[in-house]
Records
---
Amino acid sequence: MADTVLFEFLHSEMVAELWAHEPDPGPGGQKMSLSVLEGMGFRVGQALGERLPRETLAFREELDVLKFLCKDLWVAVFQKQMDSLRTNHQGTYVLQDNSFPLLVRMASGLQYVEEAPKFLAFTCGLLRGTLSTLGIKSLVTTSVAALPASKFQVVIQRP
Amino acid sequence: MADTVLFEFLHSEMVAELWAHEPDPGPGGQKMSLSVLEGMGFRVGQALGERLPRETLAFREELDVLKFLCKDLWVAVFQKQMDSLRTNHQGTYVLQDNSFPLLVRMASGLQYVEEAPKFLAFTCGLLRGTLSTLGIKSLVTTSVAALPASKFQVVIQRP
């Protein structure tokens, strides 16, 4: 239904708008737009984190929280689950989505890989914001090897 | 569920972001941000218009198209129907939502009425964009008398 794609359409418009009015099209300006998007994602993630039905889940371990992101958060936002979750058991987690919805509409091809960060920044923030609401400070980065597969690396920041 | 509020959260962030970086906080700058939001709404409306299940409906009359906006479009975006639709039968339609979701979270009170246009511009564009996909050129304006009730006035542009 339309509400499934509403978020995707709005997200594309947001990306287009931020890049259209970019005062500095060089790496500095690009970085600023990415951090604006990441910040928006962070605040949306914080707000969503308060809404998701986490009462049903007892978060005994950090891994439970990450599983919650891969399942509940991903379903709420993208109507699908994350494809895999790996960890080194030392606070680093790699979440992989083999067909990340915000990249699916991009034509695949190596030449588009450098455009991918624009379409991932908001979601990095979303993960960081949701984790923050759940009491976990983190750094979230991303990598794309073959579109539309995406990896999100979450590194937990210990106090 | 969270996906219902995702659009609302993202919309708030978009409004906040556009006003945070407003180069000119006077009426001119305000007007530019409103038109940026309206333009984003227009393009999202165009895209949504192509997706909504309009095959089920035979649009024999203009009024059918307006009813489609009040029902199908509103449910897809806001999970509720518009509260009333009136027309002068000369191409002007007034669509009223007694509890417009994007204004519900604002505290009610006369002092907030002047903030309301920011939260209505995207939706004016959304209506105009959906109508455009359905082959109707229009002008959409809005008025708020008592928050969170909102009126959208659609004036059809005849060729």
---
Amino acid sequence: MKIDVQQAAEFLKANDDYLILMHASPDGDTLGCGHALCGALQRMGKRARAVCPEEIPHKFDYLFSACEKQEFEHKNVVCVDVADTKLLGDMKEIGDTAELCIDHHETNTDYAKRTLLRGEYAAACELMYEVINALGVEFDKELANCIYTGTATDTGCFKFSNTTPQTHLIAAEMMKFGADYAMINYVNFDLKTQGRIKLEQEVLKNIRYFEGGRVALISVPLALVQSLDVDSDDVGALANIPRQIEGVDVGICVKEKKNGSFKASLRTSKLVNAAEVCLKFGGGGHARAGGCSFFNGAEDAEKRIVEASCEAVRAALGK
Amino acid sequence: MKIDVQQAAEFLKANDDYLILMHASPDGDTLGCGHALCGALQRMGKRARAVCPEEIPHKFDYLFSACEKQEFEHKNVVCVDVADTKLLGDMKEIGDTAELCIDHHETNTDYAKRTLLRGEYAAACELMYEVINALGVEFDKELANCIYTGTATDTGCFKFSNTTPQTHLIAAEMMKFGADYAMINYVNFDLKTQGRIKLEQEVLKNIRYFEGGRVALISVPLALVQSLDVDSDDVGALANIPRQIEGVDVGICVKEKKNGSFKASLRTSKLVNAAEVCLKFGGGGHARAGGCSFFNGAEDAEKRIVEASCEAVRAALGK
């Protein structure tokens, strides 16, 4: 059942003993949402616990101060920024019993008894900001840090086209409540490990250009990743690099996975629809970012995704 | 004479034939200010021309549509985002006749007959937003692009500690008027030339760490810069890289200049005051960013700035 912000707030006020689930491969938005909601409920005198099926990267440690660790038997499950319970890993079954889901993914599978969805919001934290206001909980520095984190990280620090005036207005509000935005932005956008610097250097050494520089490809062999002290965040960020190069309309990153498959990630200019290219290989995504997998070695993967990308560029240019 | 926004607007309303000067090594803030003011005055039926003493990087071409090219003999000079007429290069003498200066640098030398200064503003464009409102000119997409550009570029896209709630509120306003923020952010923050990618790679190859990784140094030989297709923007951006590495409190970039000198740029964490370190060598700057010059070769420059940086780290740690 689709509900609005007021109805979500009424449900949260009327009940207690909340287990809040955040998605696996946790990012700033799900973590910001989960800790903000947990902190808000605790400030209302309720019991609440925010849990993630996977380890939370240390850079997000600052979010933990928004709520206390509470042990109790949960009565109500709330999923935040979770489009599908498949994204809950080992906690999928618990997620399937969700009383409430608060999310901003158009692709939400409507698995919860009640779903508060705003597909047009850049971040689920923008929606959580409205929920916390509707709960009547006053913001403080810790809650503000949570909400700021989600709005900043899901928009590339207000850089991407999903950013709206509302995103900025919420950021401004959170800064007024003391959000430590310079620290948050430093750890999320500027800070790189020495391993990541090395990784970026190595993959850039072998960057290849096609279609007169409009298509660029980097490859990430598993052995390289394993030889460096890097985490999934570091590897994930590589996908954005080729498209940042002047003249590149399709930036491709082909990454070797532990199971022997090859994951291609595409980032595109307006010229090419990334999801359409990836769909040809059973993948998908959005207009400007997509992904698909290949199972016959690096050479095959690279050849096929590069050819499809070059074709898409030529088609767009009417060649 | 220090004046306020209303007085600046009154002066601009009462006069005509404006030559608007923007500083050399033009950035998004001075260019945004200059083109916004020029466009606003033209929309009021006045004659105005925005001029920069140096070539404007092509990535800013989109700003030009905010105003028309007008030829006329100027009667009033207005400097925008210009702290000192020394920053006007060949146009210094014209700048010295300025009737009005609109700026946000605490260090403004008060050279103009009237100075509208807001040292606490992150961008001069925030102040220009207030001036245009006081002039009663309605914003449109073109003016909004100018103001958005200054607020975004002077804050690292709302990332840095100089950002205020007001910065976000103005960005939100400019987005409502149609600012093409995704394009502006892409060209200013994501886009890199192939030359820049190569340059970054080459200097990172030889990064050196000191003081247990708290001090990091990169060197930029002139021959390397000249061997690649890069511009001053590309070279300038290198200064930010070492400090982005995890554990680094002082990031140093030593760059060989055409005149044989060596320019050291420091970026620091809260642990070390960059300006204080640079002051020892006749330089200066801000708490988190500073610079100074050396004249006895690369080795001497690097040794001295690294030693001073390590000393500052040890002093801060009470060693």
